[in-house]
Design goal:
heterodimer, A: about 260 residues, alpha+beta, Ubiquitin-like (UB roll), Fumarate Reductase Iron-sulfur Protein, Chain B, domain 2, 2 domains, 5-stranded mixed β-sheet, two-stranded antiparallel sheet, 8 helices, about 35% helix, about 10% strand, elongated, B: about 625 residues, Flavocytochrome C3, Chain A, domain 1, Methane Monooxygenase Hydroxylase, Chain G, domain 1, 5-stranded parallel β-sheet, 5-stranded antiparallel β-sheet, 17 helices, 20 strands, globular
Chain lengths: ~260, ~625
């Protein structure tokens, strides 16, 4: 089939970008979306034109590298699917598609469809972990974890950090991403000691990075390739409130005798 | 040069204890005076960087991804082995050790494998404490399943995303150290050379993939956790950006390359659909627990799967290997799939596929149980092929998945260059000629959390290093080397794209250095690869400049290295005149078509030492001694 693409081309962070039209005349229905772009890039290179830069790696929908807004929808039309797992059989001959990068102030465009998602790492660094140095763990079965809790933690932990939630949100909020980690760890007994402080610190970092606030619109959940539920955002707010209202000055740490 | 494996003395169960006691420690207050470079942030690199940071070292950590969380460990599906014996089914450290040595077809170092089995137990504890949401039973205890090459259930898993959850655990520990200031993280940096000063590894040259800037970093030791080189085949289950450049450039600086021809071809992958195919997708081995593998009895049977009656199906693994059935190790399963397809009994377009059928399990357990166990895998299969595996059997075919070979390391994970440590899939150490399922995650985390952090301390405590910085002549030479290479590649402006070379290389490798290898085929491939290499440096077309994001340039350097590595793999396969594990030389097989080892002549690891461009590398040998698990013809019948 024949597909017409309008691709966002932008030389670097500071350059002005624009949509450029490309024709893909021989698209097979079994190709993945990125394989269509591979073929386009091979053609462009052979013609001496700069290939389209896009981020991708595992092509199995798990590394979270890829992400393209297709006709206004992050990761394209198939629910629960990253763009690398999207196959051309879901498009029709003659389709015209507009390809844009994630757009958010906190995700500056670096080139074409590549954005800088470093802000996500900084949110995790602010508290998205359980402080347990290697070697200090008790036996794996020492603390039973109800299957229900473990399963719900896993539902949240499946987040791949792709950033589609931010791209889809009218406020460019990172609430779904941040809350998924807060939920994952907060649902497990191992995550309790740092639970409320974690919520406070991660939410604060989200604000510092200039992500917007959650407006309960739900676009994030609709585009999430791992179908992370916005229920997590409610849990994040609860933990945040709990942390904010019960925050006290740090207890004095014991000192050497 | 002689390979010193530095295996500690004493009975096998005491070796690691003895080693740890013999090693010198670095005083806690002195640790911050040492800096360590860690390249790669997968299970091995990420765990090592985090742990070294926790211990108080100054860690400089590099990744070519935009975030440490993207490393390809994330894609591991099935699980991680540990000798916990939670199922009370007869598992023990010794049994995991035994299964792994046997599974590797007696080409791994016993002492390393024993240590791995010992450490496996602590890894699970560590991961649970980090919040890894492993599958659990209703009573709240950890759940296990069985995997290929074992008759006990010792595999821990988090749905079909075990690698993701373990990696996120390591990533979170790493981010914690980044926040604490003990680890400095450099993302979008690709290592392009190793800096060796006075015979020891002291630094690396990296390219900032955002700006093209070449940077020199000097430290007291260098750790490579840069993964495997399966992408030498172009089509593999590896991520598109997985590459061999870091280990290859270290090889060219003097780190011997161990067993390069030991490649694992995974039996359960989605078959190729067209020549635009960019990668292959693995379907977890865990599927073989409930799926039955079969092909039609008759050649060229074009009927749909559900039209073929039971009596006209050949469940070839169950037939040939009644005791392990569909759970034989990967090399055996792959080879058998190839055999039935070569006989003309393969299914699907092109005839290179076998069925993996869940109909019986769905009847026995119900679709909901199957969905709970493999739901995400079924969904992935449906997405890629447009077929629903709940109603039609999956079609699968083997694909390159893992490389057991890698840089040679001693018991302490140090390469032949002092101060250069290699961990995880990047080294050659623990899996011999075939890796068992769910053992890669175990090895990556064992190396990163529990082995390297001790052994590197001993190195630092015992080594007096001269002061050095970026202005050192060796650093300037390495930087100049990278600059020249980049200029040279960008100056060619030939006619063929980087990918077209890569695809051609992949075809030679798959055809002649894949599941079945022959003397003639390997020699032919080496000739073709040499021609390809020559053409590459005359006719590759890389557009743009160095001073920008240039994905063609990134790939170009990697493909240049793959071409050279491909040649070395063929050379190694040619010299190893026996069959073992994943290395199957057609000339050496038993009457039943199983791999026929030659223990008299090849009970050793081969490590290749670079001798300069255009020269034949030297083949070093580390003899393997089997004091505990006696080499036998592997039998899974």
């Amino acid at each position: 089939m024949k597909i017409t693409l309008h691709v966002w081309r932008q030389k670097d962070r500071n350059a002005q970008g624009k949509l450029v039209r490309y024709e893909c005349p021989n698209v097979s229905e079994h190709m993945s979306f990125l394989e269509m772009l591979d073929v386009l890039n091979e053609d462009l290179t052979t013609k001496g034109e700069d290939p389209v830069a896009f981020e991708h790696d595992c092509r199995e929908g798990i590394c979270g590298s890829c992400g393209i807004v297709i006709n206004g929808v992050a990761h394209g039309p198939m629910p629960g699917t990253t763009v690398c797992q999207l196959h051309m059989r879901h498009f029709k001959d003659g389709d015209e598609l507009y390809l844009e990068p994630w757009r958010a102030k906190a995700f500056p465009v670096m080139k074409d469809l590549i954005v800088d998602r470093g802000a996500f790492d900084r949110i995790i660094a602010a508290g998205g972990y359980i402080s347990v140095p290697a070697g200090s763990a008790p036996d794996g079965n020492a603390i039973p974890v109800p299957k229900e809790d473990s399963d719900r933690a896993m539902d949240a932990a499946q987040c791949i950090g792709c950033g589609a939630c931010v791209a889809a949100c009218p406020n460019a909020s990172a609430s779904l991403f941040t809350s998924a980690k807060i939920s994952h760890l907060g649902l497990l007994p191992q995550g309790q000691p740092e639970r409320y402080e974690r919520a406070l610190n991660m939410v604060q970092q989200m604000t510092i990075e200039e992500f917007g606030a959650c407006g309960n619109i739900g676009e994030c959940e609709a585009v999430c390739p791992k179908r992370i539920s916005i229920e997590n955002i409610a849990r994040m707010h609860r933990d945040y409130m709990n942390g904010a209202f019960s925050a006290r000055p740090n207890a004095e740490a014991g000192s050497a005798g | 040069m002689k390979l010193e494996s530095r295996i500690p003395s004493g009975p096998i169960e005491k070796k690691w204890d003895n080693c740890r006691f013999d090693m010198k420690l670095v005083n806690p207050a002195n640790k911050r005076k040492y800096s360590v470079i860690v390249v790669g942030t997968g299970l091995a690199g990420g765990a090592a960087a985090a742990t070294l940071g926790e211990l108080g070292y100054n860690v400089l950590c590099f990744s070519h991804h935009d975030s440490p969380r993207r490393a390809h460990s994330i894609a591991a599906q099935g699980g991680i082995n540990a000798a916990k014996n939670y199922c009370n089914d007869g598992d023990s450290i010794y049994r995991l050790f035994y299964d792994t040595v046997k599974g590797g077809d007696f080409r791994a170092r016993e002492a390393n494998v024993y240590r791995l089995a010992q450490i496996s137990v602590g890894i699970i504890d560590q991961c649970v404490a980090q919040g890894v949401p492993f599958a659990r039973e209703y009573g709240g205890t950890l759940s296990n399943r069985s995997f290929g090459g074992a008759q006990v259930s010792r595999t821990f898993y988090a749905r079909g995303q075990t690698g993701q959850q373990l990696l996120l655990g390591a990533y979170q520990a790493l981010e914690r150290q980044i926040d604490a200031g003990s680890v400095k993280m450099f993302t979008r940096r690709e290592m392009l050379d190793l800096i060796v000063i006075d015979g020891v590894a002291r630094g690396i040259v990296t390219r900032d993939m955002g700006t093209g800037k070449l940077e020199v970093t000097i430290a007291d030791a260098v750790v490579l956790g840069t993964g495997g080189y399966g992408n030498v085949f172009y089509l593999s289950t590896n991520a598109k950006n997985s590459n061999a450049t870091a280990i290859w450039r270290a090889y060219k600086r003097g780190a011997a390359f161990g067993n390069p021809c030991f490649t694992q071809i995974h039996p359960t992958c989605i078959p190729v659909s067209g020549d635009y195919q960019s990668k292959l997708t693995l379907m977890s081995e865990s599927l073989r627990n409930d799926g039955r593998i079969w092909v039609p009895l008759k050649k060229g049977d074009a009927r749909a799967a559900d039209q073929i009656p039971e009596a006209e199906r050949d469940y070839f693994l169950e037939r040939r290997y009644p005791s392990f059935g569909n759970l034989v190790p990967r090399d055996v399963a792959s080879r058998n799939a190839k055999m039935v397809c070569d006989e003309g009994r393969g299914v699907g377009p092109g005839g290179y596929g076998v069925y993996l059928d869940f109909a019986d399990s769905i009847r026995r357990l119900g679709a909901s149980t199957i969905r709970e166990r493999y739901g995400n895998l079924f969904e992935m299969y449906d997405r890629i092929t447009g077929e629903d595996p709940y109603s039609v059997p999956m079609r699968i075919y083997p694909a390159v998945h893992y490389t057991m070979g890698g840089l040679w390391v001693d018991y302490r994970l140090q390469s032949t260059i002092p101060g250069l440590f290699v961990i995880g899939e990047a080294n050659f150490s623990d899996h011999g000629a075939n890796r068992l399922g769910a053992s890669a995650l175990m090895q990556g985390l064992a190396d990163g959390y529990f082995v390297l952090p001790y052994t590197i301390g001993d190195y630092l405590a015992n080594t007096k290093l001269a002061k050095a910085d970026e202005s050192h002549v060796a650093a300037r030479e390495a930087l100049g080397n990278v600059e020249n290479l980049t200029k040279k590649m960008l100056g060619i402006r030939g006619k063929r794209t980087v990918d077209s070379f890569h695809k051609e290389l992949g075809k030679y490798m798959w055809e002649y250095c894949g599941m079945a290898r022959t003397d003639k085929g390997l020699q032919f491939a080496m000739g073709k690869i040499a021609e390809l290499r020559e053409e590459y440096w005359k006719n590759v077309n890389i557009l743009g400049s160095n001073e920008e994001i240039n994905q063609s340039l990134e790939r170009a350097g990697r493909v240049a290295d793959f071409i050279e590595l491909g040649e070395l793999m063929c050379r190694d396969a040619l010299e190893r005149r026996e069959s073992c594990g994943g290395h199957f030389r057609e000339e050496w097989q038993t009457p039943e078509g199983e791999a026929q080892r030659d223990d008299e002549n090849f009970s050793h690891a081969a490590a290749w030492l670079y001798q300069g461009d255009g020269k034949t590398p030297e083949r070093l040998v580390e003899p393997l001694e089997f004091e505990y698990v006696h080499p036998s013809q592997r039998s899974y019948k």
